[in-house]
């Protein structure tokens, strides 16, 4: 029997000089983006608007963040609305309003209350703004591909809000896996950047897993459940895991490779519902209109009791 072909994530080049709305290059790339999101729910974006220096500075800064004392990380975030810390098989922070100075300053001041950390704050804000530009480009391409005008795009962008997820995954013992278990994002879009340590795996529609091989110029663009609902099921929302499999002993110097990642997640502040032209006899309405942030809150509250809780449970027709 022949060996089964190993699937690969689609790669979309967003570095073309003539990639401007209305050009043939834009239209062709938009079609690539839409096909990737409908078939895989994600793609690898070759993107040069995130400078290498900023990529390195952002990910390098996470070492200092996660090296803060455990008491500081737990205690300082315990009662802070909009800021979450978790620490188990992996560590992570999630904070709101990540593309605003107020949001990044607040997060920084919570973790460094006495001294602040202007460098971390400035780096994080610059990084999030660059990823926000990518989100807006992808959303415009999708909306135009579905025949929606610029006024629709502008209204959706105006209703967007952004969270930042920062994570550290330590290598496990030999041949064990450690990290964040299989899940799907609740966002519209998620943009993931990470260091050189491989950790992200994405599941295809037929149940196979694809490993993302990181590169400084490559970002993973992934659709969340809210985008799937907005498209009335046309866009796929993939399950994925963040984890490290260790098959070799530590390096001679005893230092183990650690995965650091930073992801920007976009949400709609208002109600999520598909445009009329995406609902027809062949594509009946799948979900009632719902609050994106309300669904996120519901999922956080319910997932511990029911790990399989879904958007269908929340607002399925």
UniProtKB/TrEMBL annotation:
Ranges for domain Isopenicillin N synthase-like Fe(2+) 2OG dioxygenase: 171-248
Gene3D superfamilies: B-lactam Antibiotic, Isopenicillin N Synthase, Chain
Transmembrane segments: none
Pfam families assigned to the protein according to its UniProt record, in alphabetical order: 2OG-FeII_Oxy, DIOX_N
Signal sequence, renumbered to the chain: none
Single GO term (MF): metal ion binding
Keyword match Iron: yes
Record bears the keyword Metal-binding: yes
Domain of life assignment: Eukaryota
Start and end residues of each Non-haem dioxygenase N-terminal domain: 9-89
Keyword field: Iron, Metal-binding
Name this protein carries in UniProt: Circadian timekeeper protein XAP5
Species classification: Eukaryota, Viridiplantae, Streptophyta, Embryophyta, Tracheophyta
